[in-house]
Amino acid sequence: METEFIENLGKAEIEYGECKRLLNRDNPLAKDAIFSTFAGNVCELMGAEKTDTAAYAGTFMKVLELATDSVNQLDLPECLRSRDGR
Q: What is the per-residue burial (b if ≥16 Cβ within 10 Å, else e) of 47-79?
């Protein structure tokens, strides 16, 4: 179990590490956005099939909404600025 966890952690680090932005508002399905990658992974884990467009899109967009709401509540940019002493 520990080995599988470490392997999955390494895969996740690579997958999310390749992202260039949090969210691409013009293309929510962008492969280079962390939230889109996360939403796609949640859909996969929940068994949402891409062939069922309505169900997949609904799940995907709800995950994006929850992720962006959470970051907005955290006021992440301000937290990072204060951490860096800016």
A: ebeeeeeeebeebbeebbeebeeeeeeeeeeee
Angstrom CA distances, 22 to 2, 27, 37, 55, 76, stand at 29, 12, 10, 23, 12
- What is the pLDDT tens value at each position of the chain, 86 positions in all? 788 888 888 999 999 999 999 899 899 889 899 999 999 999 999 999 989 999 999 999 999 999 999 888 888 778 778 776 65
Per the CB < 8 A criterion, the answer to whether 36 and 57 are in contact is no
Which residues is 21 bridged to in the sheet? 33
* pTM of the complete model: 0.77
Q: 74 with 67: CB under 8 angstroms?
A: no
